Amino acid sequence: MDLETSLATLKMKGLRGVGIHPWNAGKVKIDEVKRLIERADFVGEVGLDYRLSEASKEVQRMYFEEFLDFPEKPVNVHALDAWEDAFNLVIKHEIRSAIFHWYTGPLNLLKDIEGAQYFITINPSVSFQAKHQKVVEVAPTRIILTESDGGYVYKGKLLEPTMVTEALKQIARIKGLEVRQVERIVEENFRRAFLNNSKIPSST
């Protein structure tokens, strides 16, 4: 996200997230964005990207930590090739609810994410991205959310909201569950992540 899309988001209905994507770290005045975050329902997409961002790691971390000044708000975290650093920072700032977007990180970190009662998202790339499929295989269902990341073109395929159903089907296939079961689990996880519902579904 950038400042323009953050402003547009605040005019929308539903849950509204505001933040600066790590690709835009260093390009926007932090204080302006933080004032907008105060009006938002959650923070994000924010985080670290050690692979694709042109900003230095130091600048990215500075921006990210500034956006973690709202521990009561859920945070949508981008952490490509920076999973452990991003996790450690949200723990440091005692973030109540963190959602690790398009998780393709270390499988052993999933236990720490679960222990912190945080979440990961699975998107339609799970249909063909082996690493994302392995994450679904290992991750407990209680931390799984779905998203589209759309519209975004990945490996020649357009990921868009209409494809979330395919992500649900793939999760069900990998986990050996019915699609309706996965839908209920994801809905419950969404409530806990964004609406502070304490009911926790059983792990699978």
Automatic annotation (TrEMBL):
A divalent metal cation 2 binds at H78, H101. The keyword Metal-binding applies. InterPro entries: Metal_Hydrolase, TatD-like. Gene3D superfamilies: Metal-dependent hydrolases (3.20.20.140). SUPFAM superfamilies: Metallo-dependent hydrolases. Keywords: Metal-binding. This is TatD-related deoxyribonuclease. Pfam families: TatD_DNase. The keyword Metal-binding applies. GO terms for molecular function: hydrolase activity, acting on ester bonds; metal ion binding. A divalent metal cation 1 binds at E45, D149.
